[in-house]
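User: Fold this; tokens only.

Assistant: Input:
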Amino acid sequence: MKSYLDAAATIPMRKEALQAYMETAEQAYGNTQSLHDAGTKASDYVDSCRRILGNLLDARPEGFYFTGSASEGNQLAIRSVLKGRPGHCRKIISTSLEHASVLAVLHELEKEGYTVEYVPVDEFGNLNRKEFELAVDEQTALVIMQHVNSEMGAIQDIAYCAAYAKRYDVPLHSDMVQGLGKMPVNLSNSGVASAVFSAHKIGGPKSVGIVFVDPSIHWQSVYEGTVHQNGFRPGTIDVPGIVSATIAVKIAIAEQPGNFNNAKDLQSYLLEHLPGEVIPAGDPSAKSPFIQGLLLPHVEGQWMMLECNRHQIAISTGTACKIGAGEAMSAMLAMGIASDVARKFIRISFHPGTTEENLIDFLDVLNKTLQPTEPSL
């Protein structure tokens, strides 16, 4: 692509992560459950990754588990924590801003007898704290709160939510995929019971989700009889993928301050040069600068995406996991935006390699596409 502006969906794999994958595949090919030296070596690699992640994210190493994706990680973490909760706690607190993988499991849990309360947000995607505090009580089994919304970048105060929930001894799960490597993430300070990250959003492989479950809380395995990863997830562990993901996390955190400043500069340039009739979604002063949601005046988002693609520019009409569902984004609807307006939504998102020239390419296509067409005679 000439200009890749869909970094919230995925980014290219870092050379360092790719190199780490290939080297580990050659050197640590054993099954971590095997008792021979090859298995022990592979297990040692994974334990080392847990220690590195613990140091980087300020968390106990034994709380880290690995899945095939962050979507799977959300499903397993939520269900594992819920299985460890008292039987009388049957209420879950969340918002409609969550990732599709979380909304899907919430719908499943409702069918299984749980009550899910979706706390309202304002027009910028900010949590209504008064309604949140009214919702949490002794009957609450779990609070689920996404750190950074993946469609327009609203940031929730996870530490506040976790601290308030803790008053009622309620754990909090957070999808932190869009925050890692883009802003500081400290699991101890956040107070989360569980959290999920994605390797491929920060230059790691697409096969690895990183899950943290606080070792001090009680949880139960979703799959009975599972022996891998203390019962958290069945199946042979992808050691090369885990090592590669850990390298990507280490680099992303080291580069985070510089990448954040670059994203802020790109956001400022974009907002300064947007056509007047295009409305930015969210509060630019309080949201993630890496994710830009835009509401178009008279062109549907799908049309704009295809037009950009024709010019070798990659943008999105929302979270990749929701595209194809034929529905307006739940985040837009939660913010009070009508469904017909939400269909005119597009998202562009930045990664470390995004430049001002990429935005110039995009703005050129945007301006030309929004120009009224002269009727033919």
